[in-house]
Amino acid sequence: MPVRRPAAAFAALLALTLTGCGAQVEQAAPDDRGTAVTIENCGKKVTFDKVPERVVTNDVGITEIMFALGLEDRMAGFVMPDDKGELSGVPWKDGYEKAKWLSKDRITKELAVDARADLVFAGWNYGFGEDGLTPESLHKLGIDSYVLTESCHNGRGSARGIMPPLEALYTDLTQLGKLFGVEDRARKLIADFKARVAEVRRKAPKGADRPDVFLYDSGQDKPFTAGRYAAPDDIIAKAGGRSITHDLADSWTTIGWETVVERNPETIVICDYGDTTAEQKKRFLLNYKPLANVSAIKHKRIVTLDYADLVESPRNASAVERLGAYLR
Question: 192: which residues sit within 8 A by CB, 6+ positions away?
Fold first, then answer.
C-alpha cells in the first residue's frame, strides 16, 4: 500500500478526464485486438481501444485483484512496500512468483514509463495523489488508468468512496472482468465471496446484540480510521458488528480520541502493517489513559487483521469470516 495511510492523506478532488479506463460491454476477449472495450470507473464510462497487456498495479489489495482474476500474465509488474506480511501463503502466491516486483517505494510516472505500462491500476491515496501521480498525468504520456472504486472521490472535497465497500470490490471485479475478457472468472469469484459473507451474516449477532466496533489503523495524537466507504465498515457490518465511524462519508480518515471515548466501542480491530507492529499498537491502546474506561479496553476485546484484509481486496470475505467468528 504505498502511500495510503495516515501519512498518505494527501489526495484531493481531481476530475478524471482520460479516455482509457472504464464501463459496460458484453464481450471482451483478451485476444480480440480489434474491438474497443467500454467499462465504467468512478462513475465515468471510458473506452479502451485494446485490452491492456502491460498493467502496473499499486499496493497489495489492487495487485491481488489482478491475481484473483488470473491476470498476472497481463502485468508488467507491481509496486508495494515490503510491510504487507508474508505473501507466500496467500491464495494468489503464484501471481507473486510470476509478476515482477518493480518497487518497494511509491509509484511514479517514470516507473510506469520504464515498465512500458499501458495501464496503471491504482487508487486515490493508493498511489494516485494530486501532488504526485494522477490519471491525467499518465494520460498525457499515453498510459491509461483504472481507479480503485473504494478510493473514488465522492464530491465532498477530498473525501473518497461512492458505494458500500464490498460492492466496490464486486464492481471492480466485474469491470476488470469485462475489460480483460474474464467475465466468467469474475462472476465465480463474486458468487463465492457473496456466499461466504451470507453464511457469516446468518450466524452473526442481530439487533441490540451487535457490538460497536472501532477500527484502529494508526496514529497516537489522532487515530486514523475507516469511514463507511472503506472496507472495514462493510467487513464489520457483515461480521455482525456496528462501526462507530459509519456516519463518516469518507473512506480512510482521521478523527479525534474524544469521539472514540464518547462512542465507547465494545471491540477494537487493529490494522496490522507498517513499522509499528500490531502488538505495539495494542500496547498503546491499553495504556492510553483517555481510553481507560472504554469497554473494549477494559475487557481487552482487541483483535488484529492484516492490512490486506482491510483494504478493498479479494481477502475481504476471509476477513468477514474471521471477524465474525471473533464477534460471536
Answer: 317
Spatial neighbors of 86 by CB under 8 A, at least 6 apart, are none
Compute the average pLDDT of residues 143-167: 95
pLDDT computed for residue 163 by the predictor: 97
pLDDT tens by residue, 90-117: 888 899 999 999 999 999 999 999 999 9
Render the burial of 129-141: b for 16+ CB within 10 Å, e for the rest: beebbbbebbbee
Cβ-contact 121, 135 below 8 angstroms: no
Domain chopping of the chain, boundaries = 6-193, 205-327
Residue 86, pLDDT above cutoff 80: no
Q: At what angle do helices 165-180 and 231-239 cross, to 10 degrees?
A: 120
Choose the CATH number for 205-327 among 3.30.1490.20, 1.10.1040.10, 3.40.50.300, 3.40.50.1980: 3.40.50.1980
Report the distance separating Cα 226 and Cα 246, nearest Å.
8
- Phi then psi for residue 291, to 5 deg, are -95, 0
Q: Where are the beta strands (DSSP E) in 1-95?
A: 37-41, 44-48, 55-58, 75-79
Q: What is the pLDDT of residue 5?
A: 40
Q: Domain 6-193: give its CATH superfamily.
A: Nitrogenase molybdenum iron protein domain (3.40.50.1980)
Residue 155 — very low, low, confident or very high, per pLDDT cuts 50/70/90? Answer: confident
